[in-house]
């Protein structure tokens, strides 16, 4: 029934329909989802008490909460949504398959997690390299390698289980877990490393497939003929590329074919392992009939001969064998033969003596050797030749690579990867939070048992020279594990071939989807194109990139060279899984509530340390390259990536670190050596809520050089309820202005009933703990003289008083819009400091800080100080130069002498104009038009030049400002200021000067004389820093304070008035 129909129904019928739509959760409580037009809802966030209006929930007991429904759903609605929640299937399910399947996943622990992990962990290394590792490293060394790697993956699985059970893990698997736990920077860097590892794993599996094909199945199907390594590598490249293209086509056509073959591939792996165990048991009854031929103690490749002897008796005649023809220049007994062949006998020994033979003692220890060396049985007697070069043309079995322990670690580690297979399929599981930990850990324990038992059984059954024979040349070119298996080596050959094919297809299927998940997150801009795919969601572009990177591994053409590369990337991924779990556990965040309880931060830290150790054990240079790649990706995401807030642990770690640092800052007062300006910038917003003086932000950036605390604030008049949205808009504009100036800091806009209270609140409470501001930066209120009221003047003076009371420094910039931007570069000029009084040394520190910024870097610093009549100016200059030397400041020093002089007529006239205006605005109630007209007349008088005033005759009567004073008030004001005047002054003064306050005259005199000196010396400087005189203690003089400052800065362009905070900020000590 539509909402419109419900609203038009009769009241009784409407109630019945409403009751049908309600869901009863108890006997007397109905939780209903509201229906109705939006027009019926009240616009106010408060409950409307108007009784004339029909209530929205008529007859229901939830009317009290009806206003919350827009933002907060009812509990029944929430529970209904949660009950019907279905996670999209991930990874390999086709779009069209997903439409036909049920929404609720049905896979359990065994099918959904245990078997996929088993299939991914067991594979190419077990069948092609484990026997060689056992023979080279020995049983004890191999046991150490397998144990380290298995413990590493087990600890990682424990950490991964904790993360995976702390909520739902959508598509992306390990990438999702790391990115949401450690943030987009770490997530993107490690996600790409995991992608590269999965891609190179595909290369390794394809190379394993081709190695099995060309070595054991069809060794004659070679493109490049020859027995040397170069021909073998070229054949691997050609066939590997063809196999890669074929697999990519299968993946492109549809992954459902890969899924259908997954069980076949897994069956091959299990069948091969069972055949191996069956062969071990059979050796106890009857060892296999495979023999190894030794010449002296050197193992021979028996592919080209059948009889392990120099001669044999055929029809009662002694004839030479195939070996004789190989080592001698003819088949006749009198032929010239190889010297080593002549001096040593041929011996035939069992390749697999059996489990009860005691060969385990010989295989306990390792036998490492350089590349190109003979594979020898050390216990066999032989006659060695001195200084004889290695003869590679004879059918000896050689080491193809230099072997050492750390190399074997790097080659073996890929055989324990694949533990993420269960977490990658979390959406397909019936109960992911139960299945992932149990299935993954059980798979790791099972495969660890298989690997460790294989290490022991291989060493106990197989002869050492056969174990070290990587390709099985000494046993008729059969895989070494194949001659152990029962009933035939072909079980291992076929099983390992299909296992490698399946693993390669799985890698080419999973890697593009992982890249697609990273690209769709939008954290790496240049990967955006790989987030697109076919109409059904298949990642076509990601597949193409994966094939390209996979081809790089295939061109390397060596399984032993590719394995350490992907080991690095997998180890880095596992390292950050452990780090994510450790960080989350140590932070104790409220959202960290894993259902898997058998974890501890020490285990995660141990796993992280083991991963890092294995990286450098395997290959320190590959480890550094992987770290550099991850670091570059991290910085790129930090600099260019999209801003994401995923509630990650690194942000929580930052919060904890910030809290700890703030508490530490509160423990002891700040030392002078650690003082730096922590700025509170008081900005003004215009009617559009934009920053009125953006150069104020530029100047604060230049002053800070990007360091320290900066808080940019503004105040809006009104109430927060009416102007709350405007405050948020203004704050966003402040952030945008700060970003355009590349300014690091915080922004805040408050709403107050008046500007004065707002600024007072900010000065008192901005910052937190030890990270509070110690200096306030603001612009000079240029329009205060034209203002119709005195609020601008009062606000400024009160700000000065409050910063002084709070012991904070104050910087007031005049003509701030004329200051240079961050893009400008001042080629030359000076920064002039006028040091009148010492209030902490901030005046001398500011130009040094400005010089650190590229805008002011080429400006020189000059310091001026003022000497009175009784001061020794020469000695003052020497003392000041020595003081600056100890402060390590480079500056020119100049002492300016100011002699006592008579107060000029200009000073009296400025004072008269100032007092007349003050009295006018304070005591007279003028109409608006009169006040504007008289203020303009006073402004014209105030801006008259000094020269015009001094050129007038002493007895001339200047033009009077026509004030609207009564005669009684004028006489009263004159009598009030008459005391304290000298007789001589009374005779010399003009009639209108006789009522002036002599204190104001003296102050004006100082301002005029000092301004003359400053203008004379610093008119062309880039910036002038002046001591800011404090406001009068008696508030009756406030109206004149601004005039003194105006006169002091008259004729100067860029001026900063500086008032210290009452503490030393610069020191001569180290």
From TrEMBL:
Q: Which compartments is it annotated to reside in?
A: Cell membrane
Q: Which PANTHER family match?
A: SOLUTE CARRIER FAMILY 12 MEMBER 7, SOLUTE CARRIER FAMILY 12, CATION COTRANSPORTERS
From the record, give the transmembrane residue ranges.
113-133, 139-165, 186-218, 238-255, 262-281, 401-423, 435-460, 480-505, 541-559, 565-586, 598-615
| Amino acid permease/ SLC12A domain location | 113-284, 405-680
Entry keyword annotation includes Glycoprotein: yes
Q: Which GO terms describe its cellular component?
A: plasma membrane; synapse
Protein name, entry field: Solute carrier family 12 member 7a
Provide this UniProt record's keywords sorted from A to Z. Answer: Cell membrane, Chloride, Glycoprotein, Ion transport, Membrane, Phosphoprotein, Potassium, Potassium transport, Symport, Transmembrane, Transmembrane helix, Transport
Family recorded in the similarity comment: Belongs to the SLC12A transporter family. K/Cl co-transporter subfamily.
Biological source species? Dicentrarchus labrax (European seabass)
Q: Name one GO biological process term.
A: potassium ion homeostasis
Start and end residues of each SLC12A transporter C-terminal domain: 806-1070
Claim: Membrane is one of the keywords in the record = yes
- List the catalytic activities from the record: K(+)(in) + chloride(in) = K(+)(out) + chloride(out)
Q: Which GO terms describe its molecular function?
A: potassium:chloride symporter activity
Membrane topology term: Multi-pass membrane protein
Query: Which domain of life does the protein's organism represent?
Result: Eukaryota
